[in-house]
Amino acid sequence: MATTVASVPSVFRLSTGKPRQRQQRRGGISPAARCPSSAKPSAVSVRTGKCISARATTTAHRISVRAAAEAPNAPPPEPEAPKLETEITVTDLGNGVTQLRVNCTDKMAYEVEYSLNKGTSENFYIFQSGSEVTVLGIPDNQFAEAFLDALPSICPLSSIANIIIPHFSPKRLEALAKLIEARCSSGELPMLHCGNPALTPLKTALPESLLEGRDYRVTAVRNGSAIAVGPRRLRVTLTPTPRWPDLFCTFDSATETLFTSKLFSCHICTPDVFDDAGWEELNEDFRHYFECTLAASAKQAKKALKKLAGYVIGDGASANTKASYVRQLAPLHGTIVRDHTTELIREYNEWTDKQIAAAEEATVGVIYASAYGNTTAMAQAISRGIAKAGVGVESLNCEMSDPEEVKELVRRCSGFVLGSPTLGGHMPTPIQEALGAILQEARDARTKPCGVFGSFGWSGEAIDMMHSALKDGGFAFAFDPIRCKFKPTMQMLQICEESGTDLAQAVQKEKRKRSRGAAGPTSIMSSGTEQAVGRIVGSLCVVTARSEDATSAMLASWVSQASFSPPGLTVAVAKERAVESLLTPGSEFVVSVLGDGATKGPMKAMLKAFKPGEDRFQGYETLTAEKSGGIVIPEAASYVECSVLSKLDAGDHWVLYAEVTAGKVLNDSMQTAMHHRKTGTTY
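The structure assignment produced for this chain is given below.
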C-alpha cells in the first residue's frame, strides 16, 4: 500500500506527559506487526495539531434541538472546542483491509465523564475491492478534519461507495457529510448502512442540502443480513443497548475479524495497534469502560453476548467447527484484541452476570432524555454511583421508549431518578410523558427514594418542573435536584456519582427495614477468626485526591508498603467510597500519615457527613504537596505523593498499587498514629 506522509514523529506523547520512544524504520514505517493473513501489516503515523471545532447539529427522534435553538430563550453558544493534538496511524491489516486510527492524548469530554486521564483512540476500517471502497465507522466531529486529511492517502474520497455506520450520533456528522459530497462529485450515490433506530435521526440530522435519493441512499441492516463489499460479505449481528439502540457488529470471514464498534472498546491512547501490552495491563481499561457504558444495561449487554455466541471467539475453535471462527475483535476505541479474546469474552460475561445478580437484589431505574449528550453524561455518573454501592441499575432512554415501559420500570425498581434537558424553557415531550406515567404510579412509587437532575443552557426550568411535580405527589427525595449548566465538569460528575451512591444506600436502608426481624445471613468467619483478623493493625492516614475541579478524601488505615524498587504501596478503598472514582490508574493522590496524638482534628473533619460533591476541606487549613500539588493534612507526621499503577478487585474493596513519586517528613519527633481494632468485620 502506497502512503504519502509529510513528516513522521519519533516520539509518541502519552497522557502522563512523559515521552515514550517508538522504534521506527527508515522513512517512518514502524516494525511490522502480526496479522491474521499472510501479509504483515505496516503502519504509518502523522501528527497533527489542529483546532477542530464541532459544529452544531440536530438531535433527531423525539427531541428537536433545532426547535430549541430557534426558541426565544435559547441558550448562549457553548465555548469553542479546545485545540487537540492528534496522531494518525495507518495500518495494512491484509486481505484488502486497512485500519485508520486517530490517537489523541488530550483529555476529551467523555474522559471527564469516565474519570480517565489516558487519552483516547478512534479506529476506522477501509475495505478496498477494485475501484470501489467501503468505510466502516465515522469519526467524532472533533477528529473529522484529521480523518479526512488522512483518508486520501488510502483511497480517493470519491471512490467510497459504502459507508457502514455501526452506531450513529449527531456528533459524527461532519465527516459523513463530506464523504457523501465527495461520492456525489463522481456522479455516483453512496450507500449508507445503519441500524433501524438510526434511520430517522440520520436523515433528520444531515444538512438540508443533502437529500435521500438525490445525494445518497440509505438502508437499515437486519440481524443476520450481509453487506456486500465487492466479492466479500460482511455478516451483521444486531447488539442494541439503551445507550446505543442502533448498535451492530459485522464479521469478515476473509480476515476472521469481528468489528464490534462500541463493544469491547476502551479509552486509551497507545501506539500499539494490537493488544501486545498483556492482559494484566489492559484488563482494568476494559473493565472501566464496561462499568461506565454497559453496567447500567447489563441485561441488554448479556443479550448481545448471547447473540455473539454463534461465533467461536478465541479458544475453542475445535469444539465447534461449524461456527464461524473469530481470530480478532476490532473495536471503535482502543487496540485490536487478538491475543486475549478469550479472556475479554470471559470477563464480559462475569461482569454482566455480577450486575444482573445485583439487580435481582435491588434495582434503581435511571430514566432520562438528552439533547446534546450532557444529560446522558450525568445519567452515566449517577449510574456509576449506584452500581459502586452494590445496587443494580437499569437505564431507560425516554427517546427510545414509551410511557408503559416507564411505568413497568418504576413498578419493578426500588428507587428511580429522572433526568431532562431544558428546551425552550420546558421539558421535552418524552420526559413529560415519562413524568406523567410515574405520577400515575404514585400510590406504590411514592415510597421509593428518587431524585431529579438535568442540564440546561439558560435557566433550567425542566429540573424545577420535575422536582415540583414529584414533591407535590408525595415522593421522597434521596438528594437535592442536580442542575448543570452546559457540559458537566469533573466536580459536577462527582456530585452526580455521590448522589447515585446516596440513593443506592437509601434503597439498601429501606430493604434492611423490610427484612428486619428475619434471620440474617450466617457469618463466613467465626467470632474467633474475626477477633484474630482485628489484631492486624495499620497506620492511620488520610488519602486525598483531586481531578480538575473535583477533590475528595478519606480516612484510611489499610495502607502498606508493597515494594522497594520502585518504592510502592497498596491502599484498600471500599468500592462505594466517594474518593474511589478519582483513583483510577494513572491518577495521583497523597497519603498523609497522621502523627500520634494529633488525630482528633483530621478524624473529625473526615468522619463528618458530607453532601454529594461537598468540599471535604472547607474551613480546614491544608498544605500543598511540593511535586504534584496535592492536598496534605497539616497534622501529618509525613506525607507521600503517589501515582496509581494498577487496581485489583478484592471483594467489597479495590486494592490500589501505587508508585511513590515523592515524600516529606513534616515532624521528625512525632510517632505514627496506629489504628487498633477488636474485630476484622469493621474498620
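Interim note for the steering committee: The longest strand covers residues 636-650. The chain has 16 helices and 34 strands.
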